[in-house]
Amino acid sequence: MSFRGVYDIAASALQAQTSRMNTVASNLANAGSVAASEEEAYRAIKPVFATLYQQTQAGELAGAKVNIAGVLPSDRLPEQRYQPDHPLANADGHVYYAGVNVMEEMADMMSASRSFESAVEVIGRVNSMQQGLLNLGQR
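Given the sequence above, the corresponding structure tokens read:
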């Protein structure tokens, strides 16, 4: 595999983890939002990743990139609370809080951050290897 291939794979990982961080940020920003109905309530969103395998001309596996297949809403239902004095309360006195679990989002954020750092480390190591190859010719 060429250095370019390693860069491409690491870049796809960076894009994937950036997308993941964007969805986490959106979920955390809307965690306390309130709506008058279940349909209007915010639902957490999650990125869906897919693997794109790369093959050499000889048909051998050369690597795999990460592809962002889409962003889908979570299955978690909004939380219904009885708050008849709330301005958004429906006729029954209920409001609907966003279906976001803050602890899960924080764990997802830490995981995405660590994965991002790992991809950056791969790029740094490849740069170091390339520099070492260039220095071989100077000796």
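The chain has one domain: 3-136. Try to locate this feature in the token string yourself.
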